[in-house]
């Protein structure tokens, strides 16, 4: 500016701009720069810098996460099915969602019978199928041996229902009978207030497709009332008598049961 004196060491430049000597400019820059740590003396070992750590992988989002394995239907923990840590990758085990059905009970003893049109096994003497009711009269029947189905039920006077798949021994203490001990019959206990039933009283015996009753020499006897009859008829001891569906049997003085079946001939 007009009237100002130039500072010692400065040189005026055109336009009123002052020129600063190079030594003075270097001093000004050194003062403005940040202070650096002093250099270590010669021979000082330089510490090694730690290697940079790899960045942690990004956590998968909900859309990127793999689906969870299905829960086993048999109740075993899913961890038991996973491969061991560090082991080779393998295809995950497939879990069956089909529940196993319980084992079917095997059929009865082998007997000679015939099939109806719908392949139901029947008594060769039957006029109608015991299962579906179709007529057996106009069919060409080919007898063969197959497992015998239940032949009916015993309806006891106390409300019990006993399916006839095997022989049954009825009495006050049937479990002590030799037929039961040898596995040839199932025990069926029956008692009365009069104590008229013997320990080993009557046997319901299945022979082929027939249901027979045998009085075992009981003290008070066994009697049968045929379907539609009014009175009971006492049975001779140790003599098999066939039961027709609807027949009633009296055991001792008062207890009774009735035989029912849809396998009619």
TrEMBL record:
Tagged with keyword Phosphoprotein: yes
Keywords: Phosphoprotein
Location of the FHA domain: 168-224
Domain of life (superkingdom): Bacteria
Pfam families: FHA
Pro residues composition-biased segments: 35-57
Basic residues bias locations: 97-106
InterPro entries according to UniProt: FHA_dom, SMAD_FHA_dom_sf
Residue ranges of the TM segments: none
Biased composition (Low complexity): 73-87
Region (Disordered): 1-112
Protein name: Forkhead-associated protein
């Amino acid at each position: 500016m007009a009237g100002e004196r130039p500072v010692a060491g400065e040189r005026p430049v055109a336009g009123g701009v002052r020129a600063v000597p190079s030594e003075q400019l270097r001093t000004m820059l050194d003062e403005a720069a940040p202070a650096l740590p002093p250099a270590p003396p010669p021979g000082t070992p330089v510490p090694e810098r730690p290697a940079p750590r790899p960045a942690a992988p990004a956590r998968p989002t909900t859309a990127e996460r793999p689906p969870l394995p299905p829960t086993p239907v048999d109740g075993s923990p899913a961890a038991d099915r996973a491969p061991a840590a560090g082991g080779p990758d393998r295809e995950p085990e497939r879990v069956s969602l089909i529940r196993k059905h319980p084992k079917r009970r095997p059929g009865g003893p082998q007997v000679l019978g015939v099939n109806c049109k719908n392949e139901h096994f029947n008594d060769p003497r039957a006029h109608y199928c015991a299962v579906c009711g179709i007529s057996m009269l106009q069919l060409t029947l080919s007898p063969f041996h197959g497992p015998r189905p239940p032949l009916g039920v015993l309806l006891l006077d106390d409300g019990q229902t006993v399916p006839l798949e095997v022989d049954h021994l009825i009495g006050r203490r049937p479990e002590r009978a030799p037929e039961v001990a040898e596995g040839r019959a199932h025990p069926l206990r029956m008692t009365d207030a009069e104590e008229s039933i013997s320990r080993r009283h009557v046997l319901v015996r299945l022979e082929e497709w027939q249901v027979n009753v045998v009085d075992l020499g009981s003290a008070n006897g066994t009697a049968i009332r045929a379907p539609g009859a009014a009175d009971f008829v006492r049975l001779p001891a140790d003599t098999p008598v066939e039961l027709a569906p609807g027949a009633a049997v009296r055991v001792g003085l008062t207890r009774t049961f009735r035989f029912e079946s849809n396998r009619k001939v």
